[in-house]
Amino acid sequence: DKAIKRFLVRNIVEQAAVRDVQEACVYDQNVLPKLYAKMQYCVSCAIHSHVVRVCSRTDRRKREPPQRFQRRRVLRESFKGLGDFVDQNRKLFSRCTLPQS
């Protein structure tokens, strides 16, 4: 229960070889698959490998979880005024998809 869990998402092919693989591929617009791995670290290993940072002594006593970063809400708010513009120019934006509000 104390283990620090992180979800690692990487490309299967390293960045240097991506272009070579795409040129050798028969299909156009081929999407390379990703590698998904759930990493579990003990506390000391996570601190040593800079996965997490050291807490101060006063912060160690806090039991509530840290606040999460909310990206989706910020993204939707930035597209709010764009909906009317898209409705007026439906032909131009026929291929675009906007996040649902």
- Alpha plus pi helix count: 4
The H/E string reads EHEHHH
Classify the helix fraction into a percent range: 25-40%
- Rg (CA only): 22 Å
* Spans where pLDDT lies below 50 across 5 or more residues: none
Name the shape in a single word. flat
CA-to-CA gap between the ends? Answer: 36 Å
Strand composition percent? 15-25%
Side-by-side strand order of the widest sheet: 1-2
**Structural class by sheet pairing and helices:** alpha+beta
Overall average residue pLDDT: 79
Explain what the structure shows.
By secondary structure, the protein is α+β, with helices and mostly antiparallel strands. The protein is built from four helices and two strands; from the N terminus they run E-H-E-H-H-H. It has helices at residues 15-24, 43-48, 71-78, 82-88; strands spanning 4-11, 34-41. A two-stranded antiparallel ribbon has the order 1-2.
